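## retry 2 of 3
previous attempt timed out at serialization; input unchanged, resubmitting
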Amino acid sequence: MSKTIYLSLFLIILRCSTIAAIEDKYLEARINDAGGRNKKDVFISCEEGCAQTVSDSNGKARIKLPPQLKETDWVTIKIQGLALISPWNGKLSIPSFTNKPGNISLVVVAHKGDREILKSGDAVAALTAKILSRVKGEYEARLKDEMSRERREVSDDERQFVLREVADSIGFSPKELDEAIRELGRSTQDPYQQGLVALYEQNYPKAEELLTRSYEIRKETKAKADNDFADAAFFLGRSLFEQVKYNEAIKKFQEVDSLRKDDPVVLGWLAHSLDKVSRYTEAEPLMRRALAMDERSFGSGHTKVANRLNNLAMLLRATNRLSEAEPLMRRAVAIDERNFGSDHPNVANRLSNLAALLNDANRLSEAEPLIRRALAISERSLGSDHPSVAIHLNNLAHLLYKMNRLSEAEPLMRRALAIGERTLGSDHPDVAARVNNLAMLLKVTNRLSEAEPLMRRALAIDERSFGSGHPSVARDLNNLADLLKDTNRSSEAEPLMRRALAIVERTLGSDHPEVARYLYNLGTLLYNTNRSSEAEPLMRRALAIGERSLGSDHPEVAAFLSNLADLLRVTNRLSEAELMMRRALAIYERSFGSDHPSVAKPLNNLAMVLLHTNRLSEAEPLMRRALAIRERTLGSDHPEVARYLHNLAQLFYNANRLSEAEPLVRRALAIVEKAIGPEHPNVATLLENHAALLRKMNRNNEAEKLEVRAKGIREKANRK
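## retry succeeded, writing output
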């Protein structure tokens, strides 16, 4: 009896399995030419493994889908022997498998050189979208201006490169396609198409207005999964991004991502926007996903993969994971060398980025030949007056600046500035960056009267170019304020710093690392003007932001720790100060090595805490080591060396080793007089300190002469 029951059950199961057999699924497509006519005999398939099929006499094609695909998934279509015009990104959404007219997807193809392409508004709009999707997604972060934290705009040369590639794919010249795009902007009444053209023409406020209108129309009239709605949201996100509205752009790209899962273009832009507001932990997995997709689609040696590797490496560099970033950058260099040849401008850009990473790791001798090679490639391939040559010149100057080879750096900066003025015009934002860089070098070489008008010029250019609330304006304000602080004009500097801080908080968000830097700078100014109680909360907030956004072991976090620790030292909270200084020193040594220039300051600051707690034998070797680093990296006559000499002299004074202290004070005084002039108030302070030392050595006549001179300097300064 029991066996019969089991057999019956088994037969039922077999019958059920037969009934539940999986049916084949198809994507219905209608193939048109650029003139809107049905196109027969077009071979179409997809990258996800669809069976190839051919369109019938009515232009219809039934594409058999692999079983793993389901409704709302996306497929990337492949067309044999013709140019794919639309969809611009080659992607179709799989609709419901019910047989409805609305479930048929439109595909537009054309023969290369077919004039109807340029006459069709829809075709030109699709080509414009294709250009916009690539022109910055592929080039952003390729080449960085290392002396400016601000993003570099994509150059006209790079825009022309993408325009030329898209034009070549349809059999026209870049000029013909450019003219067709601009004509579309004049003739169309569709806000989406108008917005695309405005974005192409870099009129970002107009693009935002038009694309917002298109977005709202499509949101109301179409299903949210519709491809047209996703396009409107994507390009609206692009227009917001270009106006530094990164958080708003993120929301739009997230909306597109919810509709177009696993689209590497969308993932790339979303990651890039997150990166801009330092949401690195969210950006990184998206970059890795986009990289993996492009490796699967194009192969590990494709130039698109090199771009993804480069952008991921730049994120790792920003989060101080240099050892992880380096092999990715080297792989990107190798890919471009294989694809373009060793003397191609793309290779120069990769080399420059790799050199910047080595610069960060203090491997300066390795970085210099890479930058020089990048410069030589650009000069040979693009000409000596090309804007990219100016960037390589500037990056080489930055390296030489860091190596204290300032006399070599200055002519490179001046040449980079001259190229920018000739090729871009004297009021271009890139020229403002060059002017600012030169001003910073002049400031470091104590030519403050030359530096100030350059900084004011950079500020004026950026305010005209971007408006008064742009991050570039904040950078200019901050740099000018720092110069005013150094010329003892703190009351003029403070409102500029506060305005700069307000700009970056408003544009980048209150937890961005750039906000931490501006808080740090304002806190330092308040601290230097004896307003420690106002400075401390700003410094603590800067430290908290840095730890959250950059990680607790980042060198910038060490800088925040070191500055706050110095404030704690001055306000006699020595045990807390010592802990912070030791932590800062450990971060610097781990990040850069024990002899890096950045190590000198925390060594000196820790020694000062030990000095104030009368642990002179512990403090002395730290001071000597800090002084040796400064002399080696800055030269023996640098004002910073004078400060370290003075601190060591103070230690000897406290230890009653007066004969050792006095020559150090003399040398420090000579350096400062040479650097800032004999009538500067800081010279008066050194004269007074030297006089106090001489009196303790019973050399009262010498001391009195110094005191009289110091008094004269102060009286003269007060009269001013």
